[in-house]
Amino acid sequence: MVATVDTVVEDPAMIEEFVKHVQSGGKVESGDWMPEDYRKQVLRFVEMHANSELMGVLPEREWINKAPTLKRKLALTAKVQDEVGHAELLYRVAEDLGKTREAMLQDLLDGKTKFHNVFHYPTYSWADVAIIAWLVDAAAIQSQKALLDSSYAPYARTMQKICWEESFHIKHGYDMVVTMMNGTRQQKDMIQEALNRWWVPLVHFHGPPTMAEKDRDLYYRIKAKPNFVLRQEFFSKYIPKILELGLTIPDPELHFDTEANEWRYADPDWNELKMVVTGHGLKTEDRLNLRRLAYADTQWVRDVVMG
Amino acid sequence: MPVFEVFQQAREGKAFEHGGNVVAPDAEMAILYAREFYGRRQEAHRIWVVPRECIVEINDPDLLHPPAVDRSYRTVGGYSVRDTLRATRGAVAGSAQPD
Amino acid sequence: MSDTTITKTDTKALHTLLTALADDEFILGYRNSEWTGIAPMLEEDVAFSSMSQDEIGHARLLYQMLSELTGVPADRIAYARQPEEYLNCLLVEHRKLDWAHAIARYFLYDTADHVRVEALTRSRYTPLANAMQKIVREEKYHLMHGDMWMKRLANLSSDSRERLVVALDSLWPDALGIFEPLPSEEELVASGVLESSMSQLQAEWLEQVAPYFESLDLPFPATKDESTGRYVPTVEPVYGGRQGKHSPELAELWDEMTSVYRLDPEAVW
User: Fold this and answer.
1) Best of B33, B36, B43 to disrupt the C interface by mutation (most C CBs within 10 Å)?
2) Is B43 on the interface with C (CB under 8 A)?
3) Coil vs helix vs strand at A262
């Protein structure tokens, strides 16, 4: 059931039939024949997703230690645990497409593969934890819903499991934000300050507007919706919720254009996104170093059990 | 490392459904990890852990959906009794005359 | 005397017992969650996290019990004390981010705690007995996990065996500190809150784990006293935790753990 690479030159007719199949909603299982381009595209996509889940753990883990109540401590531990678990599920899917977990983890640590922009930024306060748990998770779930019907069935099924498991994450995050916005002056200020720092990364989250025609992930129906649609959906759902708490969004240009039926916002610096995604974000090196050291320190354990 | 497929029975008596898989050096570790990934949220009443190599797949459409012969005799939808029943009822009503 | 009648003398002693039990779980849960994101395999990351949540959950149960007795909210009991008011054993307060040490520490704690919890399922203080009956079932998973790793580290290579032996050797003195006699322990035994003294529980523990260590050919720092039939340690225990005397590591842990809480102890988070 593991995908294999055919060294035979691929038959264009077979490729065309395959593309028709996936574009009309057909599914692909791990052992099925697939064009090499498709296999590589899915692998790349899933690998980045797995890397993102794993790197997402690192900004949050230090706050498990600092969680100020027993319930928050349990909830944050469980949420972060889910994220590690999701990384594992996604690496499993990717591994069945022909790349070993060791190779993927090594490439991540060597800075050769990408992970999602938001996980490059520092966290300064408990309010960051709340904003991430609410809004970053919300942005992620928006993306994930567009993957539930992915042409690559093992990925689609994993996404269904992930979406189900994440349902409490947003609720927990929202609960934290609402509690603090109903709290002391200091707590409200902390949340506003965190939002001020996280707003641009959130706008970046769904990626730069790509031409739908050039988007290979759409072409193969690995994902069902283009970036700009996901962003608009996220804005429509969450901007009202943010504003009703008395928070200000740090973009004076932000408004809903009723004629065009879309949110208008200050164009974020897409160069910043590019720099961050290629590994130059503020906390990227620190976090990768933590993982590198831990990975090296524990190599003996893997050697012993894997034989 | 061997892959183990995991099947979950959500509630007592229900069918076991494929949930996904885990990878582990041996069965003992696979069982522990299956419980983690497919049971830690108390979402399973029972779990089966099966080495992937033990699973044999049938995926040939010629075997599973052979196209030529009409096999509707095997399905509920292959039978339409409505008209015949109406006629039979009519005949029964017509012949039921008190003596 | 009814099961839930608490005399004045029992009350303070009972509080001490509940605090020690809760603090052991709370601090160990804290240490175990430090593997998040950096465990040898993702699978172990998830497993340690589950066990950590079990421990924090047990601590919460016990803090809530204390809260009912004292009127102080559970979160305040967990977060508002000073380091010298925590009554955990020293074994659980050390940061152990070497795998052999983490597994060894966990195994020693879980097997010892199992003897303690199991005895407490028969406590005359019913709320505690009930709580322990639930807790003892959750421990099955921890013991399974511990056994899985102890066997592998002991048997799969001479390198892993060496690391395990060194780790165990360094941790035994602290592990014996789990059974440091509690202040006013005699009252607890007299009233049936505790079935036997900590010293007796320790002897039971050593008796229980001796065959396991022998089966894995691991050094066992205790010998059976032929006259009493009880196992006696051959290393010095490290005491102090039950009196609030801790290593500098607890103060560091406390500082981090309470840093957000101390921003405003009156705030709701």
Assistant:
1) B36
2) no
3) strand
ipTM comes to 0.94
Query: Is-contact C167 C128, C-beta < 8 A?
Result: no
Q: How far is CA A38 from CA A29, A50, A145, A219, in A?
A: 12, 18, 21, 10
Rounded Cα distance, C214 and A289, in Å: 41
**10-residue stretch averages of pLDDT, chain A, 307 residues long:** 60 96 96 96 96 92 96 97 97 97 95 84 94 95 94 97 90 97 98 96 88 84 92 96 97 94 88 68 82 95 92
- What confidence tens digit (pLDDT) does each residue in A198-207 have? 999 999 999 8
From the list B22, B32, B36, the residue facing C148 with the nearest CB is B32
Q: Confirm whether pTM is higher than 0.90.
A: yes
3-class DSSP state for residue A146? coil
**Residue in this structure with the two tokens 């707590």, named with its chain if needed:** A187
Q: What is the dihedral of CA B17, B22, B23, B25, to 10 degrees?
A: -90
> In Å, how far from its chain's centre is CA A129?
16
Which pLDDT belongs to residue A307? 74
Under 8 Å between Cβ of C214 and C231: no
What is the token pair recorded at A105? Answer: 């983890």
Phi first, then psi, for residue A210 (nearest 5°) are -105, 155
Nearest to A264 by CA among A297, A295, A239: A239
Tens-place pLDDT, residues A177-227: 999 999 999 999 999 999 999 999 999 999 887 776 678 999 999 999 998
Query: Looking at chain B, which subunits does it touch, using at least 3 CB pairs closer than 8 Å as the criterion?
Result: A, C
Polymer length in residues for chain A? 307
Residues from chain C contacting residue B22 (CB–CB below 8 Å):
43
pLDDT tens per residue across span A50-88: 999 999 999 899 899 999 999 999 999 999 999 999 999
Closest by alpha carbon to A124, among A68, A53, A195?
A195
Contact state of B57 with A306 under an 8 Å Cβ cutoff: no
For the record, the structure tokens of B43 come out as: 């979402």
Ramachandran category for residue C111: left, alpha or beta (phi over 0 → left; psi -120 to 50 → alpha): alpha
